[in-house]
Amino acid sequence: MSGTGLHLGRLSPAAAIRPPSDSSWAQGALLDANFQEGRYRFNGVSYATETDFLIAAGGTPYGKTVAFKPYSSPDSPELITNGDFQQLELAGWNQIVNGTSTATALPGAARLFSDGTTGVGGGGAGITQPIMTTEGAAYSVTYTVSGGTTNFRIGGTTGETAPGAAGGTRGPGIHTDTFSARGPISHFYAFRASAGTTMVSDVSVKPCLPLEGLSGSGMTIEIAAKTPPSPTAREVLWSCGHLMTADPGDETLVAYQLDGSLVVEVRAASHVQAALNLGTVAPETRFFIRAGFAANAFFAQLDDGKAVHDDLGVLPGLAVMRLGHSFHGQVWNGEIERLTLYRESGVEAFYSLIPNLIRCEGDSFMTHGHGGGPAGSIISRLESITDRTVMTTASGNSTMPEISERLSSTEFRHLRPKTTVIWDGSENPVDTLSQVAPYCESLATGLRQIGHQRFVIIPACANLLETDMTISDAIRDELKARWPHNVLDWRDRLDLDPNGAPAREMFRDPDLDATHLSGTAMEIMAAAIANFITAKGW
After folding, report:
1. Is the peptide bond before 429 cis (omega within 30 degrees of 0)?
2. What are phi and psi of 388, to 5 degrees?
3. Which Gene3D superfamilies does the record associate with it (predicted)?
4. CB-based contacts of 377, cutoff 8 Å, min separation 6
5. How many CB atoms lie within 10 A of CB 213?
6. For the segment 313-322, what is each residue's pLDDT rounded down to a tens digit?
7. Backbone angles phi, psi at 349, to 5 degrees
8. Phi-psi region for residue 116, left (φ > 0), alpha (ψ -120 to 50) or beta?
9. What is the side-by-side strand order in the sheet with 173-180?
């Protein structure tokens, strides 16, 4: 095999897509396939050719697309009893018969004879068995059919004959299907409806995943690609779902719509769990997308723009990964340069991969609620101005030791490398000049743990009509002395009263609240932070 045809060819430096993570291998990736440069890595092993890589990862090329078959660990438990039919009288199986139809045991197989009578379970004769499953997990089913066609229903949660479950008709041969469990009990049901005889043998049901090495809790992907020219139908760049021809409802995908928008969708039983719209991308445009799928949280980012997320849906079990096409045959007519996949999922895994993410820390000034609610907060305003992902770990009424502790906390270790903005709006509990140095040293302790100099410090803000600025000025001066290139002073940006405190119009509710700033003030400070970061080249 010469390859899948996914190669873009060598890009000029000016046109090259920013590679995921680093210039060689994406750090910590389970799979990293650079089709442009011919470099492949899977499960910690590098492969010289695309052919060798696909064999190792379980990938099968179909023209210019690739499907990665379901993987079941050799140590996975067998969930079917007597699937080899070596025990007499169909031990472990329940028989479903209509009319004079029969289901009998042969050495190594179940024989299903149907007289064509309609009735229970679709008519004829069948065998069924309940399976103990985990809701939301994926399972692989293998079985052999001989002597005639057989009907199947796999995965149903209610009733021995699994009504409404995925299924289909299979001719003689060895077959593999997959399904996502809807509950703690699923069913395997094989039957012959039309008149005739068939044999079923070697039935096996095991947990499965799209790739060896995944945990089953989700995944994070990064793809560098080029949009197709003038699409006439929806085109799918990447998808993950199942093999069952009668069960197309469970699927996650990245698609290019007719209106030019790039979307990330999650569906379970055909119901939309999440639909993240990343905006429009012109035809024949190179782009980079990052998407994360966890049990009940989904994330996506286009290029270096701000990430979007949805945490209201549920991720179904996934068994088959497809690059360049979907279960429904929707193909990608653009180009694909690189696919990178991480075994981790969720907030930490996704946001740790965003190189230009801005982290905010502090007290209520840096929370989503300050400035008149989420839309007016400094977080949302900074995100809007910079078109970058902004996260906050701040908490209202925090002291500087608490802020410092969050900066160095293992809970937020994935955010330590990110550009960080710190604003302790009120300097509590600093009451005397002697407490200023310890206050700043507490901040220094946290900053030492983030391990870089890409941070912005905004000094504590004065209250409405405050006249004694001694402590406020001392904190500013101490911060500037320690970090002369990292301090952004609100005094240089906000409108001030004659005493040097923020003017009345800078406060959210000056008649009732002398501390918290208005949305206008937050807009001013967000713009100042953005300019500061841009000037630094961060």
Report:
1. yes
2. -125, 160
3. SGNH hydrolase
4. 367, 368, 369, 370, 371, 522
5. 15
6. 889 899 999 9
7. -60, -45
8. left
9. 102-106, 109-114, 196-207, 138-146, 173-180
